[in-house]
Amino acid sequence: MQDEDLTNWLPRLTPNKGPRFLQIADALQAAVAIGSLSPGDRLPPQRHLAAQLGVDLTTVTRAYDEARRRNLLEGRGARGTYVAAPKVELTAILDLSMNTPPPPYGVDFDDMLRQGLSQVLMRADNELLMTYHLGGGSDSDRKAGSKWLAPMFGHLDSRQLVVCPGAQAAIAALILALTEPGDAILAEPSSYPGLRAAAAQFGRHIIAVEADEHGMVPAMLEQACRQHKPGLIYLNPTLQNPTAITMPERRRKELAGIAQRCNVRIVEDDPYWLLADAPPPPVATFAPEHVYYISTLSKCLTPGLRVAFVLIRDPQERERFLVALRSFALMVAPLTAALATQWILDGSADGLLQGVRKEARLRHRMARDILAGRYSGSGDGLHVWLELPAYWNSSQLARAADSSGIAVTPAEAFATGSVSVNAIRISLGSIKDRGRLQAGLQRLSHLLARRPESFSAAVV
């Protein structure tokens, strides 16, 4: 194609469609998809394109960089920039198994990261960013945590917060600090697998307490407390992992009351509260002295931050917790904590959160449309709990899905006792591209619609 014919893909830049460099990259991607641009076509020099679009050179440079990141362009030195040949995908697995926040459309994460780190390095003492921090976070980090938790609790004394390297570390430290080897931990029949892993590692055992459509059943919890004298109760009451149930306020109050009467501590692991649509108050608001509240940034913003805030009101218990935490995770990486604090305090974190919420809801609508009568999600959060037709069992379906290039998580992965439900968890955020997510959901829907086939392994 001649150079003069390569301008028909240029976008009409508008203020309400996100950053201009992303509009350019998106237009280029669309042009490649429909064939307006073909592999080997040479693009205009960046200065010429900037002049045609009426933008500065930096905007076009960033657009070309983004297009290269998407494997759309390749540079050929002095000869210019060309449309790249399609990248051969040697691993075509569509991952619906990992609960991570989806990349929000229109949010320039790379720019956010650069600006955030630039602000941190400009304002912080670099020596402090590269040394030990033993107090569970700096004063600024804890103040950022107080702001992050304000939607759940209103004003909080930041001295009651501990900054941890992720929720898994917080759960493990609470188990170490508050229980003894051989103690029981009560949890719902399907619960976060990290709880089971930590309990087994430390010599504690999980006892499943019956749950219904609203979560853990109060009468069964009280019976289990009196029978087993547990060291802890573990709850994940908002968009529960894996069932996606949000426990109503009345149930939360009932469980908090039981913890008080039986004098048992609750670990309230609440990673999805800020993603939910009008969730009830945390259990910790109803029994503040009996509940340890955990909120991680990994599920709302990005897993790479590895920052979680733990609310522990009693100072002696906070110190016990810190001693336990330091035995295996000395601190949050100071640079990471400083970046999280910068984003929370300057509002960037809230902008990213709103983008994740919007993208997650869009993906739930996609799942509801494709999975039709099988979808039973709440329309928000990161995952769907899909009960299976009788002719499939969850481990069998997971194997068949894997053979079809899809990764899902079977019910067995979440069982705290015997497997009580025939279901799989589908995670909607781990596939970055919506088109690939749609393809994965459609492939899964077709698999569910047919009865299992006999799979024979090849011998090589």
UniProtKB/TrEMBL annotation:
Cited PROSITE patterns: HTH_GNTR
GO molecular function: DNA binding; DNA-binding transcription factor activity; pyridoxal phosphate binding; transaminase activity
SUPFAM superfamilies: PLP-dependent transferases, Winged helix' DNA-binding domain
Domain HTH gntR-type: 18-86
CDD domains to which the protein is assigned, alphabetical: AAT_like, WHTH_GntR
Record-linked InterPro entries: Aminotransferase_I/II_large, HTH_trans_reg/aminotransferase, PyrdxlP-dep_Trfase, PyrdxlP-dep_Trfase_major, Tscrpt_reg_HTH_GntR, WH-like_DNA-bd_sf, WH_DNA-bd_sf
This protein's UniProt keywords: Aminotransferase, DNA-binding, Pyridoxal phosphate, Transcription, Transcription regulation, Transferase
Coiled-coil parts of chain: none
PANTHER family registered for this protein in UniProt: HTH-TYPE TRANSCRIPTIONAL REGULATORY PROTEIN GABR (PTHR46577:SF1)
Family: In the C-terminal section; belongs to the class-I pyridoxal-phosphate-dependent aminotransferase family.
Protein's UniProt name: Aminotransferase class I/II-fold pyridoxal phosphate-dependent enzyme
Organism per entry: Janthinobacterium violaceinigrum
